[in-house]
User: Fold this.
Amino acid sequence: MQQGNLTALSITICIILTVVLIGFLAGRDKATRSSVEEWSVGGRRFGGLLVWFLVGADLYTAYTFLGLTSTAYTAGSLAFFAIPYSVLAYFISYFFLPKLWKVANHHKLTTLADYARERFDSKLLSSLIAIVGVLMLIPYICLQLSGIQDTLQVAGTGFINVKVVVITSFLLVALYTFFSGIKGPTYTAIIKDVLVWAIMLFMVVSLPIMHFGGWNPMVDKIVTEAPQLLTIPTEGPKGIPWFITASFVSALALFMWAHAATGVFTAKSADAIRKNALYLPLYNIVLILVVFLGFIAFLVLPNGTDPRFALLALIQTSYGGIGQGLAYSTIALASLIPCSIMAIGASNLFANNIYRDLINPKVKGAKLTMITRGMVFVVIGLALLFGLVFPQALVSLQLLGVSGMVQIFPAIVVSLFWRNQSREATIIGLLVGLTVTFTVYSTGTSLGIYEGFWGLMANFATIVVMNPLFVKKAKSTTNDVKEYLFEEKTKKVDLVRKGA
Amino acid sequence: MKKILLILFIVLPILAQLVVLPFVNRIDPIILGLPFLQFWLFLWIVLTPFCTFGIYQLQKSQGGLD
Assistant:
């Protein structure tokens, strides 16, 4: 590894420390950690703009920038699957998130698994969902870890012990998350999002000018020298069918992630969520341009550059100390802040839906709050341990994260609209979906289609076929959530009829 | 009329960003400095919020939101 740049390293470390400090200051008011609802979803008081920053911050991570550029570098336009995926994710969310938020708000729920437990009266289902959620989220936190590790390696080789700095910075994040709860990442998210926009736009404007004399000459050069990068392959294991199914499944999965759900539950009204669904696609303007940075790396960097370092190496060869420093700190923040939100999501699932629902149902109040907050250290500790000790074992889980997460979609979203969806069919469907996904993945029989798509189809089919067997009970029983979702309207109709 | 508009706003973003991809998977023509596939995706980043906004307004006018 090439020697780092001291100016760049100092800037990066200064910015990280400032943000950590702000993270602590955000939680200096004791109320931020007074209850699970305050600590994990900010007492549901955040307005539209704050939620926009928060959701934007936790979905556009270091891995997004490093991973997309390296995909573009190696596989060309396949990287663009991220665009329809996230645009459609927000679009589709418009139709179910406001409803989900209303139920969660009315019944004081803080996780998706909480919702499933109340909706289906099933602790088995809620703990299953929580286990899937935590199992898929820890590898995702590890990805953030490797994001900051790669960044510091490029910035600090020759000056610092990268592993020690990575571990220290993650422990600092765990500490401020424990202390400030969701307030920490929210306020720092604003700094991170502004930096991301400024730095990415700066790179997209300056890099083509520096290396090709402008945007249009760059596009001309890609068209003549590497046209294969610009279209989706029509054959091979990952072609158009993969692109379409991957976009679609990922779009359905996005808000099934615990960290995305946490961001959504902080909103103060259903309308704030609708407005978010409206404006969030615009975040992708920066994303589509980032993919082009991968193409620039392809043309500029010497053959044999490790694709994982494509963006970082491009920054290193193109800018001086200050430019490098700002770019590295942006990527570092894009790894630390989402990590904090993910840790809150995972801790919440662990404490509420695995510890309380399965192990100790009597726990509540101050003790549950403390356990939830304490879990942050366990979650980040596990991520550090796995990331540093078994990096290889994580690869499959990371690849399967989206395919696994989407399997809870019928339990969480379809159940908002289908009154007679039964608990038994939903649980069996979830298990079948997971099994099919893992089988298709491990036997390599995906036939050019995204693994999660097969799983989700099997999941849906199972529910539709099994449901009639259990529908009688589902029809005759009711509970608070079902009443809130389905029976309020009929009550209103009755009232109107009586009035008439 | 309102119902047709509503269905259009719901279906268009999904059709445009998934179903028609095999037909827009090309380099020429280059528009606004973007090869056609990239231009198409960029276009729908901008158009999708308009569709969502249309749905929002239609629902609001029918009093379906709270």
Summary: The mean pLDDT of chain B is 88.
